[in-house]
Write a structure and sequence with these properties.
Blueprint: H1 18-28, H2 36-49, E1 53-57, H3 60-70, E2 78-82, H4 87-94, E3 99-103, E4 125-131, H5 140-149, E5 153-157, E6 165-167, E7 173-175, E8 182-186, E9 199-203, H6 209-216, H7 222-226, H8 246-257, H9 259-282, E10 286-287, E11 303-306, H10 309-321, H11 349-357, E12 358-360, H12 369-381
Parallel strand pairs: 2-3, 2-4, 4-5, 5-8
Antiparallel strand pairs: 1-9, 6-7, 8-9, 10-11, 11-12
The structure holds pyridoxal-5'-phosphate (PLP).
Pyridoxal-5'-phosphate binds near residues 59, 85, 88, 188 and 199.
């Protein structure tokens, strides 16, 4: 087993079948969207995870934009979401005139702090968007209960949560993305399963199914036309071009075929990090990720939460000197240069804490046991 000379934070994994399937798509003569590879991916994902309907999209960003249109987001609507998330979670709703109501993160992990949600609900609240940070489940029973009580839509930003499960109070496993009314996933090259750029919208609430296909196809009823349900298609609603080409879907299919191997490998790396770095927690240097009893683990990210920002910087520089790239993550959106002037809510100390002290370690399929050991040893050398 070789050790990498310089260890990047991420390296996209190639299963080896990508170019074969892309070439099949090209030779088939149909390379626009909604073809055989798209259907194959969608069906696989629906069956494996119990999603009611899947539509592949060009990204998780565009899947979120579709979700914002589907729930009829209008000027002045309020959307609750954690501040510790990617800009696209918020942008999709800002594009439709909504006001974002940012919630704090949980002290135990960066997911939305459940107890903070109800005090943020007003008569203008339309939806709660939860983010399963690092793939780890939010407490979905609690969230669905709150949403039901206040007649709110729940959208799961499951960008990082492919192949992970929520374990409900009866001990049953439900795939993340199958619980909210809608859910969005990313196949960006930094995610467990990737097509370079790519994503999907999951529609679990049947009321949204017909319209979702129309929005996906530029506001036309072309999908129904292709199925022979109508004799001609036309402009029936707002929409955009949200569907990926067959070239992207062909690439994605090669990845999905290998999902079990990919997940197994990532979990091995995650667990090695966890067991070997527990010592940092004992020494009071950093805390390790918590996987609550209601969540399984898809090993999307392995992160450390340092005691201070200064300490994090010290570790980043130390790792860099040994050619290891470790990176921090989101900066609280309520403090972003775009949104801070609009933000009128309370301070969000946990969100800021994760912005300042969370560090992600390299995590990708080709990371060998020797690489992981080298990273661990390098970290342990500094204290
Ligand atoms: C990656 C990510 C996105 C955006 O995904 P794209 O496919 O790059 O648009 C959105 N939300 C979260 C939480 C993400 O991690």
């Amino acid at each position: 087993m070789k050790r990498l000379k310089s260890i990047p934070f991420n390296k996209p994994y190639l299963t080896g079948k990508e170019t074969k399937y892309i070439s099949q798509a090209v030779k088939s003569g149909k390379i626009s969207g909604d073809g055989l590879f798209t259907k194959r991916c969608q069906q696989f994902l629906e069956e494996r995870y119990g999603f009611k309907k899947v539509l592949l999209t060009t990204s998780c960003t565009t899947a979120l934009e579709m979700a914002a249109i589907l729930i009829d987001t209008k000027l002045g609507d309020e959307i609750i979401m954690p501040s510790f998330t990617f800009v696209s979670t918020a942008n999709a709703f800002v594009l439709r005139g909504a006001k974002i109501v940012f919630a704090d993160s949980d002290p135990l992990n960066p997911n939305i702090h459940i107890n903070s949600i109800e005090s943020l609900i007003t008569n203008k609240t339309k939806a709660i968007v939860v983010v399963h940070y690092s793939g780890i489940a939010c407490n979905m029973d609690a969230i669905m209960r709150i949403a039901h009580k206040h007649h709110l839509v729940v959208i799961e930003d499951a960008a990082q949560a492919i192949d992970n499960y929520y374990i409900n109070s009866n001990g049953n496993k439900q795939a993340l993305g199958s619980i909210g009314h809608l859910a969005t996933f990313s196949f960006h090259e930094t995610k467990n399963i990737s097509s370079g750029e790519g994503g999907m919208l999951v529609i679990n609430d049947e009321r949204y199914i017909t319209r979702s296909e129309i929005i996906w196809e530029k506001g036309t009823n072309r999908s129904a036309f292709f199925r022979g349900e109508i004799s001609q298609y036309g402009w029936v609603d707002i929409g955009s071009s949200f569907l990926p080409s067959e070239i992207i879907a062909a690439y994605l299919w090669a990845q999905l075929e290998n999902i079990d191997a990919i997940q197994r490998k990532r979990l091995e790396i995650w667990e090695k990090y966890y067991h070997e770095l527990l010592i940092l927690e004992k020494k009071g240097i950093a805390s390790l990720p918590r996987v609550p009893a209601y969540s399984t683990n898809n090993a999307h990210i392995f992160y450390l939460v340092f005691k201070s920002r200064v300490l994090r910087e010290k570790y980043i520089q130390h790792l860099k000197q040994h050619q290891i790239q470790a990176v921090f993550h989101y900066q609280s959106l309520h403090k972003s240069s775009y949104y801070q002037t609009h933000y009128t809510g309370p301070s969000l100390p946990m969100s800021d804490r994760y912005s300042d002290t969370l560090l992600r370690l390299p995590m990708f399929y080709e990371l060998s046991a020797r690489d992981v050991q080298f990273i661990i040893d390098t970290i342990k050398k500094l204290d």
